[in-house]
Design a protein that fits this description.
Blueprint lengths: L1 H22 L9 H9 L1 H12 L4 H28 L4 H25 L8 H28 L3 H23 L1 H26 L6 H30 L6 H29 L3
Helix pairs in contact: 1-2, 1-3, 1-6, 1-10, 3-4, 4-5, 5-6, 5-7, 6-7, 6-8, 6-10, 7-8, 8-9, 9-10
Protein name: YndJ family transporter
Organism: Streptomyces liangshanensis
Keywords: Membrane, Transmembrane, Transmembrane helix
């Protein structure tokens, strides 16, 4: 599982976040200078963080991971700057702010994991999964839900955008308060991402774009119901003791499906849609 998780995390570091940062630029406004500069520089700290994943735990791995963590913390600082600039707490903006902040959780967790230390009571195996989770269930999910909300006006879009921040917060709280809170977070996240899937298939996929864009959107819309059902079944099993998939199985199915089928296909499709608007 460690090799698979490392490969998934590398995808998040080197592809999903830098492509997503371009999509986070405020519609109708000039790009934020600091965020644009960070996006251009991102490959350097991301590459260092990726190397850290493969080194033995110790000082060198921690130092490289810290470079990546610093970049994620700088990214998180753009959330209050964006809020001051937009003065908006619309659902799509809340999702965008969430996307800016969540990689920092992954970055800090990576430093602790590479040092072999526990963080807030969680050991390295859980922290490694946390790094992956907050690149995809955090950054990518919030990013795409916000984009869907902007593209599809209505209650469903607003619910999708708000479900990721709320669900992520509940899951994070559940780490400290118990499995039932984590289950509630999984329910909210699943409902929101199923809504993203429906709106992507029904409204966004049919609006145009190239055949490749439509194919990427179709794949992301079809993958989400399956991967989120797996997440829900795991959370339900943890909370109730019912049989549920192992973490190894979840990494190979839910994790890989979300990384490739949802996150990668989604950001590539949205990038193309942004470059060639209908």
């Amino acid at each position: 599982m460690s090799v698979l998780v490392s490969l998934v995390v590398m995808l998040g570091m080197l592809v999903i976040v830098p492509v997503g940062l371009r999509l986070l630029e405020t519609p109708g406004a000039p790009p934020a200078p600091g965020l644009s500069a960070l996006r251009r520089l991102w490959p350097l700290p991301a590459s260092l963080g990726a190397v850290a994943l493969w080194l033995p735990r110790g000082g060198t791995a921690v130092a490289l991971a810290a470079c990546y963590a610093l970049a994620t913390l700088v990214l998180a600082l753009h959330a209050p700057l964006r809020l001051m600039r937009t003065r908006s707490l619309a659902p799509a903006e809340i999702a965008a702010l969430t996307a800016l902040v969540t990689p920092a959780v992954a970055g800090v967790s990576l430093v602790a994991e590479r040092g072999g230390h526990a963080l807030l009571g969680f050991g390295p195996p859980v922290l490694r999964l946390t790094v992956a989770h907050f690149h995809f269930a955090g950054f990518a999910a919030a990013l795409v839900a916000g984009l869907v909300c902007r593209a599809v006006d209505g209650r469903a879009g607003r619910f999708a955008a708000l479900s990721v921040p709320l669900g992520t917060l509940l899951v994070l709280t559940g780490f400290f308060t118990g499995d039932r809170t984590e289950l509630a977070g999984a329910v909210v996240l699943t409902a929101g991402m199923w809504t993203v899937s429906l709106l992507t298939w029904r409204d966004i996929r049919t609006r145009g774009g190239t055949r490749g864009v439509r194919a990427f959107l179709a794949v992301s819309a079809c993958v989400l119901p399956v991967t989120m059902a797996l997440a829900l079944s795991w959370a339900l099993g943890e909370a109730t003791g019912l049989p549920h998939p192992t973490l190894t199985w979840m990494a190979a199915t839910h994790g890989l499906g979300n990384a490739l089928g949802f996150a990668l296909c989604s950001v590539l499709a949205w990038r193309r849609l942004k470059e060639t608007p209908a």
